[in-house]
Amino acid sequence: MGRIFKYVMLDIMKNRFVMVYTFILVLIGWSAFTLEDSSAKGILTLLNLILLTVPLVSILFSAIYIYNSAEFIELLISHPIKRKKIWLSLFWGLNSSLVTAFIIGAGIPLLIFAEPPLSFLMIGIGILITTIFVSLAMLCTIVYKDKAKGIGLTIVLWIYFALLFDGILLFLLFQFADYPIEQPMVLMTALSPLDLSRILILLQLDTSAIMGYTGAIFKDFFGTTIGMVVSLGLLILWGVLPFAYSLSKFKKKDL
Amino acid sequence: MIQIEKISKKFGKLSVLNSVDLFLNKGECIALIGPNGCGKTTLIKIILGMVIPDTGNILVNNESIFKAELYKKQIGYMPQIGRYPQNMTIGQIIKMIKGIRNSDAELDYDLYKAYDLDSLLDKKMSTLSGGTMQKVSAVLAFMFNPAILILDEPTAGLDPIAAEKLKQKIIAEKQKGKLIIITSHLLSELDDMVSELIFMQEGDIIFHQSVSALKTYTQTEKISKAILQILKAGKNGKNI
Predict the structure, then answer these.
(1) Between B52, B75, B100, which is nearest A254 by CB?
(2) What is the structure's pLDDT at A215?
């Protein structure tokens, strides 16, 4: 694993894109805290910005990088290296460079301006979201061999998770307002990693007024501690499952 | 050395290989020939683990290739069209492959010197001509002294001098007792190198013969003529 991982990391670091991404996160992070007057407000602003930008950058950059590495993968496969190793190295290379960018960009302002348990939770969520969307990107590149289709799929996924999902939830809420829909709603949130992370932060923030409908139900349903454990567990599943599936497909892929 | 058992492969509805059986021995220099799209490259890619067959098994040194990756240490592969990371230089590619192979065997720099790659090390892969790319592929295939060499259209795209150097190298390796598999359309080139012929058509092995037996049978001197004669005979309904 070590050697190929090293080559992937070096290659990504040479790419100026990750630097730009770090810079954008620095901008978002510092401005969120310096423009808002309380750190709780700052955290919420940062949370909303992170939930939009981190997934988009992670999924798009990873997918484009994997498609551009087609030659690299082909070259490696004719040498004595396990396919699993190649795919894992690509995953860890992408993941660690994007996570590093996140920690430098958003992690430092968080540690300076926010209180310890909350700031660590935010950093943890940023890392999880990066992992989840790298993992989804790798799934997209396996589903479509064609670059244009694959990148299209990543954009559709991002729109779905970042924008559409809340709309669908709200729509269902209004349509079925007369029925007891609390439990199905909790189940529905498990379908979106971004909603899960939002709930995770809001449970910790204890600002139930701005928690939104699903957050309130979540708290009601699980209580703070169990709610956090369940949503954290679901987030980890979101990170592991798409990658595991793409790995099993990659092992049988014709190149 | 390589034992191919009932390998079949379909791409969608198109059947590329129909239950191919082959036995390839050490010290042989085998030419894999046949019309375009007959499954030569697919067969090679299956041996290399790049394409996964639908059914069948391949043994290299009596070990199934689907269980371990280490058999690839014994294989040097020169692809038909080399595909390399575009933003790396020749030097970086060679260094990377050396690092990946991590081989303790003595490295073979014959072709590297013959093609004077030293002067090209700083060139990016994206700026290379097709021929130079082929030279890099050839150098990488021979560098690690593998016991099996798989060369897919090795001389296509090379200039005559480079092609001749490659041919000399292939002959030298053959005399060391290595197994060499070549696919080519230039039958006239194969004459001095090849000891066995495998003719494929639409995913089937039509024949697998030693060159000397073939020449005696058809009473010709050249491989190209022998093959033409067999193909004509085949059309007239005679079997080989």
Answers:
(1) B52
(2) 65
SS (H, E, C) B76-135: EEECCCCCCCCCCEHHHHHHHHHHHHCCCCCCCCHHHHHCCHHHHCCCEHHHCCHHHHHH
Domain ranges in chain A? 2-250
Q: What is the pLDDT of residue A149?
A: 95
Of B77, B87, B100, the CB nearest to A81: B100
Q: Give the CA-trace dihedral at A117, A119, A125, A130, to 10 degrees.
A: -150
Tell me the mean pLDDT in the region A194-219: 70
Judged by CB atoms closer than 8 Å, whether chains meet at B96 and A7 is answered as: yes
Tell me if B75 and A69 make a contact (CB, 8 A cut-off).
no
* Mutation site for A-interface testing, chosen from B14, B46, B96 by largest number of A Cβ within 10 Å: B96
Comparing A1 with B158, the larger pLDDT belongs to: B158
Does the structure show a pLDDT above 80 at A211?
no
Could you tell me the two tokens for A128?
Answer: 């999880």
A14 touches chain B (CB under 8 A): yes
pLDDT in tens, A31-50: 988 888 887 788 888 888 88
- Domains, chain B, ordered by start: 2-235 (3.40.50.300)
pLDDT, tens digit, for every residue of B65-86?
Answer: 888 888 888 899 999 888 888 8
CA Rg value for chain A = 19
- SS3 of residue A251 by DSSP: coil
Chain A residue closest in CA terms to B68: A82
A76 touches chain B (CB under 8 A): yes
Contact yes or no for B43/B183 (Cβ under 8 A):
no
